[in-house]
């Protein structure tokens, strides 16, 4: 290649490697940047809730029950978002509710991802009876609505934070398994897999070192969206009184407590509802952005 052509090719080559290309693609998406900023604030609030929250979320004071937000008549700067029916500070409860929501969402997505990835790798790589057996198991799982199955298990075994994580994790692995299986089936006939088999590389090593890295991009997208779904599912369980214990602050339980006061003290239900909506929306927008970045065509937009 002539020197001038070489210089032009090097000038067109993105600087900084694939990671910088991915980062630039994300930063070009203004909506994704805003969603990431919201998630960063929620993460900080969840990690440092005892330091940020002005009050203990369970401290009751009936003398100031149903105090409106600070900007309304009768409100006070001591309780920026008002108080609930038991005089508990709404801002503190919303901040502490983020801890449970993010923990359940991340934990359930991680557990479902591990199970689904293992099933998908085995089904796609080995094929045959292993594929048929595992996929029929996935079909059986899909036959039961996830939330209904979670309700049945939690109702039978009782409430508990880690029980909710386990239930939502074990009921959400099918989407991971199907995507990983599809990707692996398209990769297992490639030359690098055939050559690895020819030189005696074990099946476990091939799946771990050659197949798994190639399915991480779709897994990241699915995992992000599953976090939002798990957060909404946990809120639904808590709303029905079958989630985490009553003394644990959750947005779903706050919604259940506030539904009776919508006509008179709207803030008791509206603020946890807004927090739940913003969290789910931010996570879904981030998942869509990751999906676009995972597509090589996205770099050229």
TrEMBL record:
Q: Which family does it belong to?
A: Belongs to the binding-protein-dependent transport system permease family.
Keyword match Lipid biosynthesis:
no
Supply the source organism for this entry.
Streptomyces albidoflavus
Membrane-spanning residues: 31-53, 100-127, 147-176, 215-240, 260-283
Q: How does it sit in the membrane?
A: Multi-pass membrane protein
Q: Which PROSITE patterns match?
A: ABC_TM1
ABC transmembrane type-1 domain span: 98-287
Subcellular localization(s) per the UniProt record: Cell membrane
Kindly state which keywords UniProt assigns to this record, in alphabetical order. Answer: Cell membrane, Membrane, Transmembrane, Transmembrane helix, Transport
The answer to keyword Isomerase applying to this record is no
Name the record gives this protein: ABC transporter permease
Major location category of this protein: membrane
């Amino acid at each position: 290649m002539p020197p001038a052509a070489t210089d032009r090719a090097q000038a067109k080559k993105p600087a900084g490697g694939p990671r910088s290309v991915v980062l630039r693609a994300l930063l070009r998406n203004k909506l994704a940047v805003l969603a990431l900023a919201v998630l960063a604030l929620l993460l900080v609030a969840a990690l440092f809730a005892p330091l940020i929250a002005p009050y203990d979320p369970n401290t009751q004071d009936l003398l100031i029950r149903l105090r409106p937000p600070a900007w309304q008549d009768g409100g006070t700067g001591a309780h920026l978002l008002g108080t609930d029916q038991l005089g508990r500070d709404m801002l503190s409860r919303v901040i502490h509710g983020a801890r449970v929501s993010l923990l359940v969402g991340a934990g359930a997505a991680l557990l479902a991802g591990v199970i689904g990835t293992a099933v998908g790798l085995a089904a796609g790589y080995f094929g045959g009876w292993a594929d048929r057996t595992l996929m029929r198991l996935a079909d059986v799982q899909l036959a039961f609505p996830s939330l209904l199955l979670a309700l049945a298990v939690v109702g039978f075994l009782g409430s508990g934070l880690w029980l909710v994580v386990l239930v939502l994790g074990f009921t959400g692995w099918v989407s991971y398994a199907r995507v990983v299986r599809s990707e692996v089936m398209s990769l297992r006939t490639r030359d690098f897999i055939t050559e690895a088999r020819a030189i005696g590389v074990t099946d476990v090593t091939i799946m771990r070192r050659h197949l798994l890295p190639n399915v991480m991009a779709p897994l990241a997208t699915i995992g992000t969206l599953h976090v939002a779904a798990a957060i909404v599912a946990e809120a639904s369980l808590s709303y029905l009184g079958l989630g985490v214990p009553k003394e644990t602050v959750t947005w779903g339980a706050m919604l259940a407590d506030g539904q009776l006061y919508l006509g008179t003290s709207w803030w008791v239900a509206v603020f946890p509802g807004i927090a739940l909506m913003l969290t789910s929306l931010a996570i879904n927008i981030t998942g869509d952005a990751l999906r676009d970045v995972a597509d090589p065509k996205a770099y050229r937009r």
